[in-house]
Amino acid sequence: MLNFSSSRNNEIQLLGSIETFNYYNYQGQQNFTTASSSQNELELIYYSNNTLLRLDAVPTDVEMRHIIPFMDDCFILSGIGTISGIELSRQILLNLTQLSYQPIFEKELGMVKSIFVDNEVVYFGGDITYNNNGVSGRSVVQWNSTTNSSSLLPFGGFGSNSTVNSIIRLENNNLLFTGQFAKLENNSFVSKTNRTRNFSISMEDSEVGQQISLRQATWNANSNLDVDAFICPNSDQQAWYSEGSYGVITCNFPNTLTLSKIRIYNTPITDNQISLFRLIAIPGNGILNLTYLDPISHDIKHCTENCPLFTRETLLNAMGNVTQESDVIRFINNNSTNIKWNEYYQEFAFVNQLPITSLQFVASNSYYQNVGLSGFQIYQDSFPIFPNNSFNEPNCPSSNDIASYVKLSGNGWFTVANDNSYLANSYIPNQGTKPSITYFVGINVPGEYVLNLVTPGCDKDNTCSTRGIVNVTTFDNSNGNILGSALIYQNNNNLKYDQIFAGVLNNSISVQVEYYSGINTNTGTATVVVGVVDVVRVSISSEFISDQIDGDRSLHLNGIFEYSPSNFTFDNGYLTGKIDYTILDDFGVSNFNKGASIFAVDQNQNLYLGSTNGSVYELNSLNGSSVPSTENNLSGLINGMYSVEEGLVIFGSIAHRGREYGAVILNKSITPLDIVANDSIQASFNSTLFGSNLLVFDNSTIFNMTSFMVFENTSYRNLDLRNAGKNSNDDMLLVGNIVNKGSAIGNESLLISSNGTYSPFSLSDNDTIEGAIYLNDTKALYSLSSGNVNYFQLSDKQRLPWTWQSTVVPVFYSNGQQLLGAIQENSNKSQIVLIDLFSSQVINDTGNLTMHKINAIVNFASNATALVGGDFSLSNPACVGLCLYNYNNSNWSSFLNNSITGNISQIKFNDTQMLLSGKLEVNKTADINLLSINLTSNKQDILLYNNSVVLDDFILVRNLVVGWNSTDIFIRNVTQWSNLNIFDDGTNATINRIENFGADSNPALIIYGQFDSMKYGTINAVIYDFNSWYPYFEVDVVSQTATPLFFADRDQSSYGNTRHVVPDHIIVSSSHSSSAPSSSSSHKTNEKPYKIRRGFVVLIGLALALATLIVLGITGVVIALLFNPSVNGDYDIIKTNDSDNFAGSNITPEKLIRVL
After folding, report:
1. What does the entry give for GO biological process (predicted)?
2. Dist CA 1089 CA 970 (whole Å)
3. Which of 439, 549, 935, 1096 is a Cys-bridge partner for 1060, taking CB atoms 3.0 to 4.6 Å apart?
4. What is the tens place of the pLDDT at every residue in 866-918?
């Protein structure tokens, strides 16, 4: 259709500071070139091959957690909120073929954290509850799409307060569930061969006490003692021994403790094994009464002075006689404490729980010659968390116990008066980061708890006048919910306790204490103090205790469970099968903290397992009885991880080399992403848009993996992404808002070719382009302005020697004379400028001869005369709007005795014709809009007259005249006039330029300006081939007041030059054309050769991939796929916002895939 062969290098030019350029390639594209008009809506968007289609509006309060591809043409939507009247927590199936929504579940599931598609079966995991025929299950449920039925899995779920984070398929086709759970709800399928192994596992899982950190304790021993080994016992090593059958160790605590029990590891060295011992409390030096579970008789017994320790051999043999879990573990003291034993240690509970400062262990007898221990560990039911992490540090660095610790803000904390129980901070309000501390409270056992915050008295450090108010907030670590908040005054004279929480806890929590304000308004520097948080356990969950008592029937887990669907079959209507305890189940118990929240990712046939506390394991093989693994210890908090091409994305709040990041990439080594985490990142997903691989964090920060830097929104591309999912056919579904105005040009001018390519070019770094004209096959001339200086420059950037103080625009060039005609303009006057480019001389500048407004100049070369048209008048000679200027003798004269007057907007030659447009009066005939003068016969024809129509410009297309003003287009075909309605849809138009770029037999107009169409949005160029309309391109400029100039860059000198002489008279025609229709008329001419009929546009639909688009400039034919599929079933149909033929509402993915 388009033919740029007449233009230099087959290219046209847009001249100006262009920011973005965008071909209009498909209907609906305009929906993404401006920001959403509604601040209360997101959008459900289809994307493929750089094609964006708006499918539906989404309320901004919707939280889209998952978009999962299903089958060839569906997506599963999951989250919080409502779409099309359906709660996302019911899990919605979006069918792209029928463009419909269908809820998967009858009732809401809860918070789904993982969705895994296994052919026709879909597994949903998370913090969910599902009821199946009166039987409730938690954390996981399955849906069969073939039967449209949902059910619990054979094991029911993972019990109360459990959650599933990940569901993946293993190489052996088993499914792996990971999350935070400790048991199965239905253990009837558990293989009996697993129970003995479970006795040992359950002992670790059922620990109800809090192990006391002995890192800051001091020790006294009568002989050899390795303190580090003693407080973190290795059952294969001896950490203390004393020669003879008697020995003493004293542990001095850094603070007063109330103990619940002690775990004692006898030495593995046979000659040094202790047979009897006693414990002495200091102060008071009283012998403590103890309770223990006898490994031989399995009875509860008591002792004081002579408490028994059994040899390792005896314990190992006794373990072989265990038949039930109660043989190795018992709850005592109203179920507040439990006591256990195994082949390595024995536990002894304190009958009287008294506050003590030191504990003395006395070995009073030996089985053989000497006495020794691998170590001991001490437990409390309630426990403190110190603001100094040195006192919270676990005895064993790799302990699986849930740790408690603190995290301080980075500004200047210090101890006071050598008291390590609290810290202080001097803070100037409103300067820098507020002082804060976060206490991470490890909860091993579900139950009822009370938390007290201890505030040291201000009399102790003389800070009563500067103490302030702190804000104390308690959070649930599993979901971030606030459990309570209070303002606490710190100006207490003496030590005080404030209750900050009381209630049931099922998992770990955190307490944040932050400076809020001063108490006295005249306070300068404020003193903030933080003390101990006392965690008091009131009672243990009865369900937890019941699980431990009945533990011999259950499978003990720690966040990892491997499930084999192939193990289960229906036999005569009954489900049969078995569940085995696997090495992966054991991996969770053996390697992660108890109660850990675990994530799983399958990447490149390697399994990655990570927990919230920073441990990430890479498992290379699952064959055999062990799991080869590599541990990557990350410091900080992990909230999730997923696989991308570059490696494993791990996000949360992760410290690396002294800096905290929101995310890192793990691929053999750790690569941090330049995202500083002020707060822990809670959610992230991956999406590929416009050729870039993007990672989105917390719906706000976008990291471009392609450029490896944070994506910054711009005026031409703005992304607000909430979630995305893509299927194997590269169909992507997104929720958010997208503004995509096309390619960034970089504030330069643009070369556009007819084959659909374009490239930026620069004439000057900062100067403004005012006009351009074609000179010859190798050069064009450009007019530029820089402030008050105006000048000419050639296309090779050669600057010509003249300057002016106002804008100079070239209007004609005579190649034979090398004569350039230009108009110099300023706010209130115009004048002509004529330059001989051969001699580089201004040959006849009109100097001080000024006129009101010059619009056009043409050249009668034979007469060395320019005809000047515009809105002006001269008295000598008498000229109104039209005047002759002889540039050889610098004389002005009237044209045709001033018989043609008025406001001349344009003058052009067409072979033997000269055409003048504007608002003219000819020989007393007024309101003439277009006049033709035959330069051979001197005959005059009035082509257009109408008292309301003025043409700004016109072009000649064979026997047609195409004229326009800023709002309307008119076409004259022989004797008939018609006005064109762009797109025939009421488009608001601002027309700057029209050029013909078709072949002689097939003209095609490019109409340039700004067009606001109901169908296609705002575009800047359209194509009209006298049959159909086509949107062409859109541009954005740096300054909205500076519209780029459209420059054809081709020889149009025949419009401005003629060899005919200036006519000395005219012959008035006896008739003239009928008047043109008004701008609102819809009449069309039916005369050939170019039939003008109702305009229409055939657009590129969704089904055309950009890679296969037939560029408008090459083919002139753009194919649309318009479909209207029937909709069956009980689906809710998407209601689109567009009233017209919206491509997204009619195109099925099958058709899309077929074309792609």
Report:
1. axial cellular bud site selection; bipolar cellular bud site selection; intracellular protein localization
2. 16
3. 935
4. 999 999 988 888 899 999 999 988 899 999 989 999 999 999 999 899 999 99
Judged by average pLDDT, the poorest of 412-421, 505-514, 660-669 is 412-421
Residues 509, 603: one domain?
no
Which tokens in the block code for residue 261? 């029990």
Using the 3D structure, point to which of 628, 655, 682 is the last residue of a domain. 682
339 and 442 housed in the same domain: no
> What does the alpha-carbon distance between residue 337 and residue 447 come to, in Å, rounded to a whole number?
13
User: What is the distance between the alpha carbons of residues 305 and 316, in angstroms, rounded to a whole number?
Assistant: 25
Mean pLDDT confidence for 110-117: 95
The predicted pLDDT at position 1129 comes to 36
Same domain, 326 and 452: no
Q: For 1049-1104, how does the pLDDT look when each residue is reduced to its tens digit (9 = 90+)? A: 999 999 999 999 999 888 876 555 555 554 444 333 333 333 222 222 222 222 22
CATH value at residue 450: 2.60.120
Cα separation, 726 vs 1017, whole angstroms: 28
Residues 159 and 129: their CA atoms lie apart, in Å, by 10
Residue 664 CA, distance from chain mean position: 16
- Mean pLDDT estimate for the chain: 83
CA distances from 566 to 171, 175, 560, 575, 1131 (A): 14, 10, 19, 12, 34
Domain that holds residue 613: 598-682
pLDDT at 36: 57
Q: Torsion angle, CA of 792/794/796/799, rounded to 10 degrees?
A: -30
Residue 769 has what DSSP assignment?
E
- Average of pLDDT values for 1031-1038? 85
> Smallest Cα–Cα separation from 857: which of 907, 787, 928?
907
Buried b (16+ CB within 10 A) or exposed e, 253-283: bbeebebbbbbbbbbbeeebbbbbbbbbbee
Tens digit of pLDDT for each residue in 915-949? 999 999 998 888 899 999 999 999 999 998 876 78
Is the domain of 400 the same as that of 375?
Answer: no
pLDDT band at 518 (very low <50, low <70, confident <90, very high): confident
| Boundary-marking domain end, from 355, 380, 405 | 380
Question: Is 507 a domain residue?
Answer: yes
User: Domain containing 273 — which CATH number?
Assistant: 2.60.120.260
Query: Is residue 112 scored above 50 in pLDDT?
Result: yes
> Are 341 and 405 in a shared domain?
no
pLDDT of res. 30:
63
d(CA 568, CA 154): 8
Could you tell me the end-to-end alpha-carbon distance of the chain, in angstroms, rounded to an integer?
Answer: 25
What residues form DSSP beta bridges with 1139?
none
Q: Are 427 and 528 in contact (CB under 8 A)?
A: yes
Give the Cα separation of 842 and 540 in Å (integer). 101
Domain assignment present for residue 371? The answer is yes
Q: Is 505 within the bounds of a domain? A: yes
Peptide bond between residue 877 and the one before it cis (omega within 30 degrees of 0): yes
φ and ψ at 390, to 5 degrees? -60, -30
- Tokens (6 digits) for 236: 């294969």
Cα→Cα distances 340→81, 150, 236, 244, 275, Å: 48, 42, 19, 29, 18
CA separation (Å) from 1081 to 900, 948, 980? 29, 13, 9
Q: Is pTM beyond 0.85 here? A: no
Looking at the predicted structure, is the pLDDT value of residue 1144 above 90? no
527 and 437 co-located in one domain: yes
In whole angstroms, give the CA distance from residue 291 to residue 333. 10
Would the CA dihedral through 691, 696, 700, 705 be positive or negative? negative
Can you name the residues that pair with 563 across neighbouring β-strands?
Answer: 175
Q: Assess whether 357 and 239 both reside in one domain.
A: yes
Encoded amino acid at 327, one letter: D
Residue 955 lies inside a defined structural domain of this protein: no
Tokens of 472: 């104390």
Please enumerate in sequence order all residues whose Cβ is within 8 A of that of 1080, keeping only pairs 6 or more positions apart, or say none.
Answer: none
Whether residue 398 sits in one domain with residue 314: no
